Amino acid sequence: MKSLNLKYAIETIAYLTYSCRFKFIIPCLFMVGWYSPILAQNRVVKYLQITNFNNQLDTNYAELLINGQHTLYKYGQTKATDQSPITDLNFERVKLRDEKGFLYYGDYEKGFYYNREFLLTQPVLVIDEMLSINWVIDFNTTKLILGYECHKAVGEFRGRVYTAWFANQLPEGYGPWKLSGLPGLILEVLEHDNELQIIAQEIVESQVDFQKPDEKTKLTQMNYVNKFKKKLNQLTKYLASNSGGSKLFQISSKSKFHVLERSLFEN
């Protein structure tokens, strides 16, 4: 009886997998952000990253380094001069950065991100637990990116909705920034308010070595959010008190933070 039950279970799983793949019904393992890190190769994916907060474009070259179950996404070291896929780059935004820039180190064995962020001008190490993204995959919609057939997926992460395009031919479940969990490497991302766009420019098969970023100040994700909001509030009050009554620096309880992880900063 046990062998029959095992045979029935195997046949059931096989049927569900077949149905989901060819009838475009997404299995539960995709809905919880499943991927297969065992299949991950050593690669470097070069992206163009564009943020568009408050009609101020910020365009950067970015790279995703993949080594087994560890990744490093980095940007902010240099400015890009290419034309933006969203609109023409006719506005240069001044940002305080250093030679290291922003670093997002993914440890998929332990399930944590170790990120080099900025607390206004101070670099800090932010430790953030990886969260599964509930991706809804549309296998019926495809487009070609860098010669790879990519499928469409839509998911919500921390207050924003993203459309991602991933390549089944590249079996890593990784992607730029903190977006991952699809059955293929993410090559393009578009945030639904058009405030973030990330587009792969080149994929290089290469052995890469990198280290977890380290800074003197180490914070959990929520500690970082709380400290950031406090410092920004203090800065805004200081500017308001020294602006001669200018409305540019008035504080409103309805003001929104122009950050990607919107839900963390608005709570």
TrEMBL record:
Mind telling me which Pfam families this protein's record contains?
PNGase_F-II_N (PF22252)
Alphabetized InterPro entries for the sequence? GLPGLI (IPR005901)
Taxonomic superkingdom: Bacteria
Q: Which residues cross the membrane?
A: 12-35
Q: Does the keyword Transmembrane helix apply?
A: yes
State the UniProt keywords alphabetically.
Membrane, Transmembrane, Transmembrane helix
Please state what the protein is called.
Answer: GLPGLI family protein
